[in-house]
Amino acid sequence: MSLGRTAAAAYAVLVLVVVLAPAVVVRAAGDRGAGAGVVGSADLLGAGAVVGVVAAVVAWRRVSAPGAAGPASRWIAALGALGVLATGATAVPTIALHAVTGVPDGPTLAPVLWAGALAVAVLCAETVRRRLLRWLTDEETHGR
Q1: What are the pLDDT digits (tens) for 66-104?
Q2: Cα separation of 71 and 67, whole Å?
Q3: Nearest to 73 by CA among 124, 144, 134
Q4: What whole-number distance in Å separates Cα of residue 131 and Cα of residue 119?
Q5: Is the dihedral of CA 43, 86, 130, 3 positive or negative?
Q6: How many CB atoms lie within 10 A of CB 108?
Q7: What is the DSSP string of 73-102?
Q8: What residue spans define the domains of the chain?
Q9: Residues of the chain whose pLDDT is less than 70?
Q10: Would you state the pLDDT for residue 3?
Q11: Pick from 24, 72, 88, 125: CA 20 to 30 A from residue 16's CA?
């Protein structure tokens, strides 16, 4: 396996970890009896795993696929997107979980909102990656 493919696989694993981390934290807090009484943490982990695997596959394909942009530009854009994903994957699902705390259908609604909020975070990160890559590619082709 080449260095580029190994780095792309490591990046994909990192994306999966970033997407799953908030659910793991909620589960750990629930195991200690601190909050997270709204829903079973396994449901949140399952929802996070589904979104995380899709995001990881997309991330791996984006950084490993050759294209018009050079590898440096692809990696810069990917790391920028990772920062947005880390922020969004932490904040947005937490806000969604807080929103269903007092709702009677909270236990059934929470995993759906969690997955939807994670999907929004992934889409925001992908948008940032695309825009940043376009900007970097324009800089490479048009000069400074």
Answers
A1: 776 788 889 999 999 999 999 998 887 777 777 766 666
A2: 9
A3: 134
A4: 18
A5: negative
A6: 12
A7: HHHHHHHHHHHHHHHHHHHHHHHHHHHTTT
A8: 3-142
A9: 1, 30-42, 68, 100-107, 139-144
A10: 84
A11: 72
Tell me how far apart the alpha carbons of residues 116 and 52 are, in angstroms, rounded to a whole number: 12
With tokens 């807080």, the residue in question is: 98
What is the Cα–Cα distance from 70 to 3, expressed in whole angstroms?
A: 15
The reported pLDDT for the residue numbered 2 is 85
- Widest Cα–Cα separation across the chain: 58
Residue 46 in tokens? 């399952």
Please return the burial class of 32, using the count of CB atoms within 10 Å of its CB with bins 0-12, 13-18 and 19+. Answer: exposed
CA distance 20 to 45: 7
Q: Is 67 exposed, middle or buried (0-12, 13-18, 19+ CB in 10 A)?
A: exposed
CA distance 6 to 40: 35
Both structure tokens of 6: 């190994």
End-to-end CA gap in the chain: 36
